């Protein structure tokens, strides 16, 4: 028994370290094991604001689920037929802000299907003013992993109090993208 305990302790330590790196591999396809549970700074209590102006007929349901600190829940961005672009912004509560160079992003599940283009990029804001317009860690349509929860990341260059995921789906059939959780610092 004395030998087994140190080995179990070492295995537990390695499991904890696996979630701390900059890779999103720990987030792939395992609901409840990624997103909020390894965020250093989540956006719990944040306001979630959707913008569907660049997507005719598109809708967003469950905004608050993207900022509830529970990666098992999600907001649904529904893109109709030809698609377009939807922005979902999480604005920190109570004047809270986050530092520059913090790895930020969102746990997102893109659907499998016949869309010609799917991408995500991020914008940051401070006191309602644009700070950064950033590409996502995997914004090219070929780099996305459909039908899996993946934590897409960016590294803001300046402090921010709001993080916006700008999701684009074009061509193909109606598609539903799930935004599980925003993370302000990972």
Task: Fill in the keyword field for this structure.
single chain; mainly beta; 1 helix; globular
SSE layout and pairings?
Layout: H1 4-18, E1 41-42, E2 47-51, E3 59-61, E4 75-79, E5 83-91, E6 104-109, E7 117-126, E8 129-135, E9 149-154, E10 162-170, E11 175-185
Antiparallel strand pairs: 1-11, 2-5, 3-4, 4-11, 5-10, 6-9, 6-11, 7-8, 7-10
What does the model show?
This protein is mainly β and 186 residues long. The protein has 1 helix and 11 strands; from the N terminus they run αβββββββββββ. The chain has one helix at residues 4-18, and strands at residues 41-42, 47-51, 59-61, 75-79, 83-91, 104-109, 117-126, 129-135, 149-154, 162-170, 175-185. Strand 7 (117-126) and strand 8 (129-135) form a beta hairpin. The protein is globular and about 40 Å long. The protein starts with a helix and ends with a strand.
């Amino acid at each position: 028994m004395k030998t087994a305990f140190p080995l179990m302790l070492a295995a537990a330590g390695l499991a904890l370290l696996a979630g701390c790196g900059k890779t999103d591999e720990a987030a792939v396809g395992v609901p409840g094991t990624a997103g909020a549970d390894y965020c250093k700074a989540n956006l719990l209590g944040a306001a979630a604001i959707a913008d569907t102006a660049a997507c005719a007929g598109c809708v967003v349901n469950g905004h608050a689920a993207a900022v509830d600190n529970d990666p098992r829940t999600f907001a649904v961005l529904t893109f109709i037929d030809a698609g377009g672009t939807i922005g979902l912004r999480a604005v920190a509560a109570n004047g809270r802000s986050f530092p520059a160079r913090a790895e930020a992003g969102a746990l997102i599940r893109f659907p499998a299907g016949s869309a010609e283009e799917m991408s995500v990029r991020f914008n940051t804001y401070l006191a309602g003013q644009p700070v950064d317009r950033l590409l996502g860690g995997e914004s090219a349509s070929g780099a996305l992993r459909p039908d899996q929860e993946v934590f897409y990341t960016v590294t803001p260059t300046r402090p921010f109090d709001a993080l916006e995921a700008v999701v684009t789906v074009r061509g193909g059939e109606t598609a539903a993208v799930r935004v599980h959780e925003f993370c302000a610092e990972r």
